[in-house]
Design goal:
about 0% strand; elongated; mainly alpha; about 950 residues
Length: about 950
């Protein structure tokens, strides 16, 4: 493989036997460097000003213009005549050079077909030598006659040109060697070196060509020949087998042409490149791929990506190498090359393009398993919620989105078909995964509803009924109506029914509520469906069982109004739900009416009739309760008395007298209430409410301000109460009343007993611990208060699912309290000699304090989080300051002291940065509407740490704008 430089660079040479045919190409480089002026003299490059104009001050006097039209031959004859007549004139060297230039021009004209030899059937190489021989002789004679002339570098330049045009390449090279050797500061130096490189490359002297090109390519000053020399330098090194060195030059060319180009454009249309530059880039990429292939392929690319700018075109290196492998039918190498880039730069805009190429390669090669794996990897890497999609939204829409959808659909259908054959859970789960991702990624797609229904079917078949129900509902209601909408809605109910059967008792209510909501949704969306009647009746019963009485009544009313009508049994159930719901909602008149309707549809020997009659009696009693609730207490007492009249055998009769006493308590008739309660205790010593008498008496004492007596009643009640909930409540009341009576020892005892007996409910237990902490503080026992604070925090952290916002609040404040002594101990440690020991101790204590504050922060309580974050930041800040102000070792010189101080600043800087980061994080809470004194403190600290950004912030409102 060899470059074709003459197609790009006019100075490139072909072998000597082709020199004559290359004249047209070679002439261009000479024309660029030696364009003939008005007097047919080739002008110097811009570095010099040696033109005919420079001869104006010389004594040569030419005859006045007679208006005669001249041509090249006339000029030649004039110069020849002058040289014959003035052999010793001072202008003779200039005239000889100009004559030589005119001979060169004449030879160029003849060589291009404009002279008398055009079309002659003679040997081209001999003709070239003949055409340029006169010029060669003139230049040689000039150099011999005037070896020290100041413009001899130009003469050598023209002589080399003449030799090369005449086909004497070795002679041309020799002259150029002399030019660069004798005139290193010549304005022709760079072009001469470039032409030397071209000649030596043509002669296969690659080492010499390398040196010639290197003198330009490695020059600190770029010249017009720089890019060409860099490219040909790479080829010269490549020809010598030094591939790594060649790659350095080729990447240099690519740096010049590809950096900051549009990475989405193909090489045939890279923005801003001319056609010649595109061809240069294509050839450079081609030879770069050849080098990489001979090394370690794609593994050899990363070491050359030595700058961030070079990564602009790095993907083209992988792409071009992969494409070369494909032309060589090296399928695996091509795929591995594309994948190497994808895995190295997964977020690059071209990564999905190369990944798609891999899939195409595998498909074309018939590698089905590899195709499948590649498609899985594609959707995982470039899914709609992938990091790539977030980082490259435009590229994702353009390149990845269509492929992701197609591959997800294909993978889902494939695994679904497999699952239907094998009935294995793992196969179903595989299909479920793809369906979920397809739906989540393309929720508005017309095929999403069908995919959602198939997903639900799979989940149901796999026994995952909760998930199946959710997906059935989505399929039924989330999309525009479709042929499976109603079936999906009903299937959701079947899924929830299965879930109820499997649910643990404590989980069943939640499952039932979900099923009920789904049933109501089904009834609303598909009201004409024949399955609506039994679905809504069942929903009404379940709602009532879950104490959703108003909702249950509303659903039952819908059942009663269905058209066509519901069955009689469904109506009886609906009226029962309406009655119970009205009774429980306090509409006892409506309850009485409903129970009447139920009894009308209930057989006389039905075992449930007595219960219904009892409910009617209870409705009368409840009217008395309503009167009492309305503040008509005397009327309430009358209603309670009426219960004995209308239902003397009713179980609520004793309750009525008890409620009368309660009404008297409400009337604050403490004496009357006390007498009534004592009478109840005598009349109904075995009645279940007898146990409530003590509590009522406790209330009487409480309301009359006798706290200690009331606490004693509650304490006794707790001791003899068999109901753990009531006993717990009584003991709690006793503790609170002891505390209210300022009987702290009794209150402490009551709270301690409460914790021992009733660790649940968890929130109340934590509250008890909090009160014990407060009581210890009020007693001035700081040690006990700290110990109980620690117990509170540990207990709260072990609360698991029982933890609440209130317990977290108490736990967070406890954690913050426990962090304070750790912080205080840290600040006691001074950084003095022995510094190493003290530094280790102080850092360890700082870590302990940070951990303690982290515990408080983990609770997520706003005011605790802001304070803990502020204090953590201040710990870092204090540690950095402590380093800077630490005791310096003795015996340091001034320089050593300065170095020591610099080292301390370097060690302190990370701690200041951590402090800044934490303060900034704390300041960001202001954007969430949190602006307490700790957030303000962070802003104040930032004003000192980062005065440029935060120093001008004065108001809280402005602070919010800053962090945004």
């Amino acid at each position: 493989m060899r470059p074709n430089p003459d197609r790009r660079f006019p100075g490139a040479r072909l072998p000597q036997r082709q020199a004559a045919r290359a004249r047209g190409r070679l002439a261009l480089i000479w024309v660029l460097a030696a364009m003939l002026g008005a007097c047919a003299s080739p002008p110097k490059p811009p570095e010099t000003a040696a033109t005919l104009k420079s001869l104006q001050d010389r004594p040569l006097v030419l005859p006045a213009d007679q208006g005669v039209t001249t041509n090249d031959q006339t000029a030649l004859d004039a110069y020849r005549a002058y040289l014959k007549k003035a052999p010793g004139d001072a202008q003779r060297p200039e005239a000889m050079r100009r004559l030589g230039d005119l001979e060169m021009q004449s030879a160029d004209t003849r060589a291009s077909g404009g002279g008398p030899t055009a079309g002659a059937a003679v040997d081209e190489q001999k003709l070239d030598a003949k055409n340029y021989g006169v010029a060669v002789n003139l230049y040689q004679e000039l150099l011999r006659a005037y070896p020290n002339a100041p413009d001899n570098d130009r003469v050598l330049y023209q002589l080399a040109h003449a030799y090369e045009q005449g086909g004497a390449l070795e002679s041309a090279l020799g002259v150029l060697d002399r030019l660069v050797r004798e005139y290193p500061k010549s304005s022709y130096f760079n072009e001469a070196q470039f032409r030397r490189g071209e000649l030596m490359f043509t002669m296969r002297n690659y080492a010499g060509a390398e040196r010639a090109y290197a003198s330009i390519a490695h020059s600190p000053t770029h010249t017009p020949y720089f890019e060409r020399s860099l490219y040909m330098h790479g080829w010269s090194v490549y020809k010598q087998g030094r591939l790594e060195d060649a790659l350095a030059s080729f990447f240099g060319v690519l740096d010049l042409k590809l950096i900051a180009r549009d990475e989405t454009a193909s090489l045939d249309a890279v923005a801003g490149l001319s056609r010649a530059d595109r061809e240069l880039v294509q050839d450079t990429l081609r030879v770069t791929s050849l080098c990489l292939e001979s090394l370690q392929g794609a593994d050899s690319i990363p070491p050359y990506m030595t700058s961030a700018l070079r990564r602009d075109y790095e993907f083209r290196i992988y792409e071009n190498l992969g494409e070369m492998y494909l032309t060589q039918e090296r399928i695996k190498d091509a795929a591995d090359t594309f994948l190497a880039f994808v895995r190295r730069f997964p977020l690059h805009a071209q990564a999905p393009v190369l990944q798609s190429r891999v899939i195409g390669i595998y498909q074309k090669a018939g590698f089905d398993s590899l195709v499948l794996d590649a498609k899985r990897e594609y959707v995982e890497r470039y899914g709609a919620k992938s990091e790539f999609a977030r980082a490259n939204q435009d590229a994702w829409e353009r390149e990845a989105r269509p492929q992701v959808k197609a591959y997800l659909t294909e993978l889902a259908h494939r695994d679904h078909a497999i699952a239907q054959k094998t009935h294995r859970t793992e196969d179903r789960q595989a299909a479920v995964r793809w369906y979920r991702e397809l739906i989540d990624s393309f929720p508005q797609d017309p095929e999403a509803a069908s995919a959602n229904f198939l997903l639900a079917e799979l989940l149901f078949e796999d026994g995952r009924y909760a998930q199946a129900g959710t997906e059935y509902e989505k399929a039924a209601y989330q999309y525009l109506p479709h042929e499976k909408s109603a079936d999906a809605g009903y299937a959701a109910l079947l899924a929830y029914a299965q879930q109820e059967k499997q649910a643990a008792p404590e989980q069943r209510p939640a499952v039932e509520r979900t099923a009920i909501e789904s049933a109501l949704r089904f009834g609303s969306a598909f009201s004409k469906d024949p399955r609506v009647g039994p679905v809504l009746t069942n929903a009404a019963e379940k709602l009532y069982a879950l104490h959703e009485v108003q909702k249950a009544s509303d659903v039952a009313q819908i059942v009663l109004k269905l058209q066509p009508p519901a069955t009689p049994e469904q109506q009886r159930v609906a009226w029962t739900v309406v009655g119970h719901s009205a009774f429980e909602s306090g509409d006892f008149a409506a309850a009485e009416q409903a129970y009447t309707e139920v009894l009308a549809r209930t057989a006389g020997n039905d075992p449930g009739r007595d219960a219904l009659a009892e409910r009617l009696a209870a409705a009368v009693y409840k009217q008395g309760e309503q009167a009492r609730a309305a503040g008509r207490l005397r009327e309430a007492v009358d209603d309670f008395d009426r219960v004995a009249t209308v239902a003397p055998q009713s179980a609520v009769r004793a309750t009525a007298q008890y409620d009368a006493a309660s009404a008297l308590i409400a009337l604050k008739d403490w004496a009357g209430a006390g007498r009534t309660l004592e009478d109840f205790r005598q009349r109904y010593p075995k009645h279940p409410l007898e146990g409530e008498v003590d509590s009522k008496l406790a209330v009487v004492y409480s309301e009359s301000g006798q706290w200690a007596l009331a606490a004693g009643e509650f304490d006794r009640l707790a001791a003899r109460q068999t109901d753990p909930n009531l006993a717990r409540g009584a003991l709690w009341q006793a503790a609170e009343l002891y505390e209210k009576a300022k009987a702290r020892p009794s209150a402490v005892s009551a709270y301690e007993r409460y914790l021992q007996r009733y660790p649940e409910p968890f929130e109340t237990a934590i509250e008890a611990r909090s009160r014990l902490v407060r009581l210890a503080k009020e007693d001035g026992n700081a040690g006990l208060a700290l110990a109980r604070t620690r117990e509170l925090m540990v207990a709260e952290q072990q609360g698991g699912a029982a933890r609440t916002e209130h317990t977290r609040l108490l736990g967070a404040h406890a954690a913050l309290t426990l962090a304070e002594p750790v912080d205080a101990e840290y600040r006691k440690v001074a950084l003095v000699e022995p510094l190493k020991k003290q530094l280790k101790l102080k850092k360890a204590m700082m870590e302990d304090a940070l951990k303690a504050y982290a515990v408080a922060t983990d609770y997520g309580v706003a005011d605790v989080t802001t304070e803990a974050t502020y204090r953590s930041a201040e710990l870092y800040r204090d540690f950095g300051k402590a380093l800077l102000t630490s005791q310096r070792p003795g015996g340091l010189s001034k320089d050593e002291r300065e170095q020591y101080d610099v080292l301390l600043e370097e060690q302190a800087f990370p701690f200041e940065e951590k402090a800044t980061g934490l303060h900034e994080a704390n300041a960001h809470h202001s954007a969430e509407g949190i602006y307490d004194k700790w957030v303000k403190g962070s802003f104040d600290a930032l004003a000192k740490l980062r005065p440029v950004r935060y120093g001008k912030t004065e108001q809280g409102e402005e602070a919010i704008d800053v962090v945004r």
